[in-house]
User: Fold this.
Amino acid sequence: MAIGNRQLAMSKGLNRFAILVACATFFLIIAGALVTSNDAGLATPDWPLSNGQFFPKMVGNLFWEHGHRMVATTVGMLTIVLTIFILVKEKRQWVRRLGIFALLAVIAQGLLGGLTVKLMLPLAVSTAHATLAQLFFCTTVSLAVFTSRSWIEAWPLPEEKEGFPLRYLCAAALVTIFLQLIIGATLRHSATWDKPLPVELVLTHIGGAFAVTLALGGAAISVLRRHKNEAFLTRPAMLALMLLVVQLFLGLAAYLTRQASPHDPQPLNPMIGITVAHVACGALVFATTIVLTLRIFKVSQPVLQDYRIRQDLHVNPENPVIL
Assistant:
């Protein structure tokens, strides 16, 4: 479907900036994992300053803690710009609201981060901070999807006549992954490197891994089987499966290295590197499943308004409308 050059240019610019914010958020998740793995959460006891300074000497664990704050500040500023960009250029009201939600979420995330320091890293607050980080990441990835050309130009596929609806399978996988991320965050914050991990949480996390494997594996394989010629759907499905395999191996490696860490004089590699890689890959599994789920909902539920707008594009191509 041909869409006006001006609106395609606008959409491309907005989409690229949304992708930038999503990538910056992913980097922020890695920075947060480095703080936890290095046991650097209380490297400085004050907030928002670090040792009473805006730019302290980046030495020891202060490098990880203050570096995390600098990345978070950058993400916050990028989110402000993205929200303004959306409010100025975006015509879809629900996308505008999602942009506002992203701004509110990043503000809340910053406040939660400060609260974790002020309250000396309580488990509930630290877990909420990590959970909101994943929810904010979900929002930025969704904005990148909604502003993409592939989303705007996607056509509904023929109605599924057999099998469990893919949109429910993918939604179930997405929720399962999000719950597993919460369990993982709770596990990471439940014990410092020099103490054993709680057995109950470890077993719960392992059970969650089996649940994610079944839910995501079933959803992705169903997509590949039913829509093998639709690259719009098969690419994120295949990528999600590959990342899931990598994530399972990283999870096993992270557990084995973490078991030995209480005997170390301080947090050491490979425990730090493998644990951070496990967190990062988990975020990527989440992101690809978000993309897959949103795309499934886009093509499996035709919207009458979308059809009318597309018909209008045929009649009046000089005045196109972004869906």
